[in-house]
Amino acid sequence: MDAIERIHTFDRFGSILGLERMNLLLERLGNPERDLKVIHVAGTNGKGSVCRYLYEALQENGYKVGLYTSPFIESFYERIQADGSFISKEELEQYTGIVVRNTSILVREGHDSPTEFEVVTAIAFLYFAAKKVDFVILEVGLGGTGDSTNVIEKPLASVITSISYDHMQQLGNTLEAIAGEKAGIIKQGVPVVSNVSQREAAAVIARTAYEKGCVLYDASKVKYRIAEQSAEGSCFDMQLYGTDYSGVEISMPGRHQIENAKTALIALEVLRKQGIINIKRDKLYEGMRKAKQPGRFEVYPGQPCIVLDGAHNEAGAETLKETMGACFPGRRILIVAGMLADKETDKIAGTLAEISKNFIAAEPDNPRKLPAEDLAELLSRCGGECAVAKDGQSAIQMAMEHEIEPEVILFAGSLYLIGEIRGRLNHV
After folding, report:
1. What is the pLDDT of residue 427?
2. 318 and 265: one domain?
């Protein structure tokens, strides 16, 4: 059994929030997380992209940086990166062995087993400590308060990218409840960067920051001017607390990516003014331009043009609709959609049906998948004309041969579907 298979055996324990198991495991491992300088990033949407901007910008400035994100798109090794490279198979084997041996001891002592995400997080901490990285960009897995990454006691900054409805069964049914969970990453005296625009959610974050004695940098209040916007990315100008950021170029399209880039730049500016990092403007700009997040409005130019976007919740679907309208106005669009059954499938389907009425229903490679026939029925109720694909390969073939001769083929709805399609497109 290889490392990834051993890690997946912990999936049977499900996704259980809480820090007790994680703290016990890290104590046995010698608390590697305590030696790490962490920028902690939470949020419903956008956190992966914000992490990518931070990672690339700091690397470009000569820092050795670790990046921990989830889920992966094509390869499990994507989840743990350092210095521009994925963790290697040999390194994953090494640190998985250490973590699994220690989990076995804890279970023999009568403690609950860690979950899969907790095991992977512990592996990442060991790896980053061994690599002696200067900084770690740490993405929250689920929520904030009880997420296994929240064992970090004193991050350099706590970043909250957005609040919207997702994972309500774990996080709550109101924006205030969800914001309360995300605000759990806020620590005593640690600067907070928040880009939350909804008043009720923003109030929860502001109150938590005040109670913890934190300076709050409200990114939602920072204005910018868009100089250029296309399917290749954007260029924008803004002022940040007395520093001029003109002509910032990013390669991820959409207004939401300008918001994500702005959030990352504010976090970097806060750390720069505190003397924690030393960054050069040209290197910072180059890092921002280099940042690309697989499967997040990822464009493959050609005839037809192909777009991959893991719009897996209501807010993500709305953002996708806006970005498609801005980048591909008036084009013939065919959507290949696949969703997980535990998402707000009716709302996502309704929004996708505002982008196009032409669909192919597919299935993500995940036990929680919504059957393609059920999705087709849902999309039909939203006014769509929908064919059904057996698998990812047939979905691609059906899309390429579709009778409307699409100018744009959009694959959307689940990152698990996007991962499969991306793998097939990249390895044809």
Report:
1. 75
2. no
Q: For strand 85-86 and strand 233-240, is the pairing parallel, antiparallel, or unpaired?
A: unpaired
Specify whether 184 is located in the same domain as 115: yes
Contact 133, 83 (CB under 8 A): yes
pLDDT tens digits, 186-220: 999 999 999 999 899 999 999 999 999 999 999 99
Whole domain around residue 414: which residue ranges? 298-426
Residues 138 and 274 in one domain: yes
197 in the same domain as 180:
yes
Contact 114, 22 (CB under 8 A): yes
| Under 8 Å between Cβ of 402 and 57 | no
Specify whether the CB–CB gap between 338 and 369 falls below 8 A.
yes
What whole-number distance in Å separates Cα of residue 400 and Cα of residue 407?
10
Between CA 391 and CA 414 the distance in angstroms is 14
**255 touches 326 (CB < 8 A):** yes
Residues 415 and 367 in one domain: yes
Q: Are residues 44 and 95 in the same domain?
A: yes
Q: Report the pLDDT value the prediction gives residue 168, as an integer from 0 to 100.
A: 47
Domain boundary among 237, 262, 290: 290
3-state secondary structure of 146: coil
- Give every strand in the sheet of 385-388, ordered side by side: 298-300, 305-309, 408-412, 333-337, 358-361, 385-388
Q: What is the DSSP string of 368-420?
A: TBPPHHHHHHHHHHTT-EEEE-SSHHHHHHHHHT-TT--SEEEEES-HHHHHH
The CATH number for 332's domain is 3.90.190.20
Shared domain check, 234 and 89: yes
Q: How many CA atoms lie within 13 A of 94 on its CB side?
A: 9
